[in-house]
Amino acid sequence: MAAKLKLLAETTASVEEIAQILRAEHSDPFHILGMHLVEVQGRAAVAIRAFLPRTHDAWVVRGSNMDSIVPLQRVHADGFFEAVFPGEQAMFPYRLRTDYAGQTEFEDPYRFPVVLSDFDLYLLGEGTYYKTYEKLGAHIVEIAGVRGVSFAVWAPNAKRVSVVGNFNYWDGRRHPMRIRGATGVWEIFIPGLREGEIYKFEIKGRHRSYLGLKADPYGFYSEHRPKTASIVYDLDRYPWNDQTWMAERAARQGLRTPISVYEVHLGSWRRSPEEGHGVLCYRELAVQLAEYLGRMGFTHVELMPVTEHPLDESWGYQTTGYFAATSRYGTPDDFMYFVDYMHQHGIGVILDWVPAHFPSDAHGLAFFDGTYLYEHADPRMREHPDWHTRIFNYGRTEVRSFLWASGLFWLEKYHIDGLRVDAVASMLYLDYSRKAGEWVPNAFGGNENLAAISFIKRFNELTHEHHPGTLTIAEESTSWPMVSRPTYVGGLGFSLKWNLGWMHDMLQYFSVDPIFRRYHHSNLTFSLLYAFNENFMLVLSHDEVVHGKRSLLAKMPGDYWQQFANLRALYAFLYAHPGKKMLFMGAELGQWIEWDSARSLDWNLLDYEPHRKLNDLVVQLNHLQRAERALYEIDFEYTGFEWIDFHDADHSVIAFLRKGQTPGDHIVVVCNFTPEPHYGYRVGVPDNRFYREILNTDDVKFGGGGVTNGTGRQAIPMAWQNQPCHVELTLPPLGVVYLKPEG
């Protein structure tokens, strides 16, 4: 094209470079556009060049007072202009003026220096800049006294990258970026742009057929679905008021503290009947949810992903915006308000985070620069067979840095208190959900994903180093060892691990008719064989109440009364078992139907006594967990638990002790998982004291039949079940009893 290029006037620029600008293929447009020292007929001069499509006339407005106007000469009909200033030997300030869409005057982006320093680029390339979100993406800055927005994006295999938006009519020729050496980072400062500008990156690949229009991987805010552009946003102006919480957080979230988590999907927890049952915004949710959690006694809320995602039905687990709080519920400031409000009301916020995979949506990370950049090039490693999503290439330095920065970003900018990492098992195993021949072994011939393991370990180290007192929680569904052990002893470094085995065993057990439970007694006891191998969180999560699995209440066998009694017993056993606790929203209401992300929970159920009293039981369980050290202080060591009796399979009865650190501080827990009450049932106890009944799930105030032990029972100094004393109890049908010694 350069040889045939028809110029309208002489120019100091290279014809080939002009052709590249016209084709929007120049990798360093700053080399030709903007102000340059040149030589004209042997004399020094200054040349100012601009590419202004659809412009008929243009001028240079020069001088510190902008009091001199010089016409730009049209060099090419498509809008390439140049003005030459003979005799000038130094750069000078100037602006451009055009007649396009009315006469407008603006700063020339191509007269400004680089934004990223060589040291920035070195750290980015090395992978040791853990706050890459401070350099990449869009940032409101001031350069040479001019305010505007700097843009930077990693696209090493692109032929050209441009910023496009309403401000340049989505024309990729107008603001091409420059590549910074071998780093693969492209950048530009566009003066005059402000917060709220909508933008994307237009990427031309080295193969002429590829032209991608991509949302910013580091974008802080996105358009409301189904639109997908990024929005310039300032994250640094929110006035936080959670200083007390932040100062106390480490003490509140230690392994010897009470932690009970309420898992929430913000779009369906509660909806607004005044607005056609539309979703509530972050600020509305903050007030209503904090009040509810305060009444219920939960210590934390865990949010299913609020990172930006295109499809509601993915519940956020197919993320496109790893640095953007979804615009479904408001702005980034609104989400900061949500977290701040929770903290001011004593509630920690845990965020679901998904570094395992990402969707293949055209505007997202997939095939980002015309190559498989964030994902694997090898098709055997590229796509997740279960979810048809792309798998991150953890062996690539820039990808690891991107994900580390994302995790740290939420802790830093949004004061998030913990990250629950989704689908860890799918990261650890190369053959996860794959048949023989469909996966690539590691360098040693094994199925372990060595790059992912290294990534996870470093993620946990960085999290605990930069934000001590925060939690990292693994959803890991296999028997991978030492998930919640420090990396310096060979562990993965998570604070806690979801106990999915316990959840599976319990739901299987409770779904069986009580007459057959004697044959499944090991479901109750098996978890104690491994309970202290990890720091476990016991969960009854959203995954168990969707896709035909039925709600927790609907899983319970028996008649209406027995279903509620079974569920009360399950919850009481959950809170008595070693480990931190988590309930998915609606479990505390006794939802009859499965969770539906497109509608609100059935809050009207609280108008009915059985549901309201079940809700009261959860309040009491949370209260007891906070009040009784024996129920939380030693969750992860065998010294905090002792079997009294686990042999009575014929009656489906178990009894055990939960112990605190102080000698003599213990609670006796007795469970009867049949609908038959037992009278005069002997249970061994450690002390000859009065054992007060502090919880009975058959209490009428919880919807039970009132089969209780009154205020409690005096111990009898006669050995029983390897204990020096015993009490004779009335065991309620499908009931759980907590007893605490007095004196």
Topology:
Layout lengths: L14 H8 L11 E7 L2 E9 L6 E5 L5 E9 L3 E7 L7 E5 L5 E3 L11 H9 L10 E7 L2 E9 L3 E8 L12 E2 L5 E7 L6 E8 L5 E4 L15 E2 L11 H10 L7 E5 L6 E2 L5 E2 L2 H15 L3 E4 L3 E2 L12 E5 L6 H13 L3 E6 L3 E2 L20 H4 E2 L4 E3 L5 H17 L4 E4 L2 H5 L21 H17 L4 E4 L21 E3 L1 H12 L10 H4 L10 E5 L11 H4 L4 H17 L3 E5 L24 H19 L13 E5 L7 E7 L6 E7 L5 E8 L4 E7 L15 E3 L10 E7 L3 E7 L2
Parallel strand pairs: 16-19, 16-30, 19-22, 22-26, 26-27, 27-28, 28-29, 29-30
Antiparallel strand pairs: 1-2, 2-5, 3-4, 3-6, 4-5, 6-7, 8-9, 9-12, 10-13, 11-12, 13-14, 13-15, 17-18, 20-21, 23-25, 24-25, 31-32, 32-33, 33-38, 34-37, 35-36, 35-38
Describe the structure.
- The structure is a single chain.
- By secondary structure, this protein is an alpha+beta fold.
- The protein has four domains: 15-111, Immunoglobulin-like (Sandwich), CATH 2.60.40.10; 118-231, Immunoglobulins (Immunoglobulin-like), CATH 2.60.40; 243-498, Glycosidases (TIM Barrel), CATH 3.20.20.80; 638-741, Immunoglobulin-like (Sandwich), CATH 2.60.40.
- The chain has 14 helices and 38 strands.
- The chain has an eight-stranded parallel β-barrel, surrounded by four helices.
- Strand 24 (383-384) and strand 25 (389-391) form a beta hairpin.
- The longest helix is centred in the C-terminal third of the chain and has 19 residues, at 609-627.
- It starts with 14 loop residues before the first helix and ends with a strand.
- The mean pLDDT is 95.
